[in-house]
Write a structure and sequence with these properties.
Order of helices and strands: HEHEHEEEEEEEHEHEEHEEEEEEE
Strand order of the largest sheet: 3-4-2-1-19-16
Radius of gyration: 28 Å
Strand content: 25-35%
Largest sheet: 6 strands, mixed
Helix content: 25-40%
Shape: globular
CATH architecture: 4-Layer Sandwich
CATH topology: Deoxyribonuclease I, Chain A
């Protein structure tokens, strides 16, 4: 009798265990997520822009106004300071977009450079040498001798042709006045034919309103050339980058250059400006009296915009690059870019602008 009772107890225990296991299995099946296909994967390519803030060498050029940046000048611009400037810029360039692509910028628009000598020193710096950067540069007619350039990695980009677009301003006292040329470069970026414009528009010296026409003139020079490209190919892939000295919504950018941040209402030939939204969120590349602005912009033609993009690459996200070491962390300029100069005092910083970059994607 005791044997039967023990057997019944064992059977009862087995039934209970089986019931619990079945219940758990049912629960697991019920709560388990349904299978979802893997998201699309992409190769990335970084297009960036950076204002190098007075990137001069220490040698006197008698045909330009570079006296401020000489050893005998007000800033006592020595070889030691110059080498620190080169090293600091290389540190930033090395890190722009590197968390998304180890190679960093495939193309990099640069402004406030004196000549090709400073560019050679920069790309030969140990932090950048392995990337094999080359550059396209032309001397412009700016009285201070500062130019624009396009740095590129040959593994990503191959230039085909380039041209300087002269920007002549209204004469002063019957003397011809020029600002920085716009550099136009046509080339092949990972198989796509692209048209790149590197800009550095006139500053706001004398007040924003008084100087608006000068920037609008530069914008119209750029837009006029863009129109010739679009006349031949309405789906041309165009990138306009630069220090525009105006915000995305200002007249020179939105009207003279013809750009918009809204894809739903954008006109057919308008450039798309992703920085409208970035600025609206309170981000910026420079500040004045605690008011942030985005003068450093990268705009694209609509053939970059998915799902109607053309070619291999399309526009991903847009970023202001603002690493911890590039920021002022104390004093009245807390949060601002850690700049190279405060008046004539060397700050051992990087630039008075933060760089910007966009991620261009290619589906794998």
């Amino acid at each position: 009798m005791r044997y039967i009772k023990n057997t019944l107890h064992h059977l009862f225990a087995l039934v209970c265990f089986a019931t619990i296991v079945a219940s758990c299995t049912a629960t697991i099946k019920k709560d388990a997520p349904t299978f979802k296909p893997m998201p699309d994967r992409h190769h990335s390519c970084i297009a960036a822009f950076y204002n190098f803030e007075n990137f001069y060498d220490t040698i006197d050029n008698p045909v330009v106004d570079d006296e401020e940046f000489l050893p005998s000048g007000a800033k006592h611009y020595s070889s030691f300071i110059y080498q620190k400037k080169v090293s600091n810029l290389a540190t930033v360039v090395q890190k722009i977009g590197a968390d998304m692509n180890d190679d960093g910028p495939a193309i990099l628009g640069a402004v406030e450079i004196e000549n090709d000598t400073v560019l050679q020193d920069l790309i030969k710096h140990p932090l950048l040498k392995n990337r094999g950067y080359l550059f396209v540069h032309e001397n412009s007619k700016d009285r201070r001798g500062i130019d624009v350039a396009l740095l590129y990695q040959p593994k990503y980009f191959r230039p085909l042709i380039h041209q300087s677009l002269t920007v002549q301003l209204p004469p002063k006292k019957n003397i011809e006045t020029f600002t920085r040329d716009i550099l136009y470069v046509k080339g092949i970026l990972l198989g796509d034919t692209v048209h790149i414009y590197v800009n550095h528009w006139p500053s706001r010296r004398g007040g924003q309103k008084r100087s608006t026409e000068a920037r609008s003139k530069a914008a119209r020079v750029c837009r006029s050339h863009i129109n010739t490209i679009l006349a031949e190919d309405q789906a041309a892939k165009i990138i306009v980058m630069g220090d525009l000295n105006d915000n995305p919504s200002d007249y020179s950018v939105s009207h003279a250059l013809q750009s918009s941040g809204g894809l739903k209402m954008i006109k057919k030939s308008d450039l798309y400006n992703p920085w409208v939204e970035v600025l609206a969120k309170g981000n910026g590349t420079l500040a004045n009296r605690d008011a942030w602005g985005i003068f450093d912009q990268i705009l694209v033609s609509q053939s970059w915009i998915p799902p109607r993009h053309r070619g291999r690459l399309f526009l991903g996200s847009s970023y202001v690059f603002k690493a911890f070491f590039m920021v002022e962390h104390q004093g009245r300029f807390k949060g601002y870019p850690l700049r190279t100069w405060d008046g004539n005092q060397f700050r051992n910083g990087f630039s008075d602008h933060f760089p910007t970059f966009v991620v261009l994607l290619e589906k794998i």
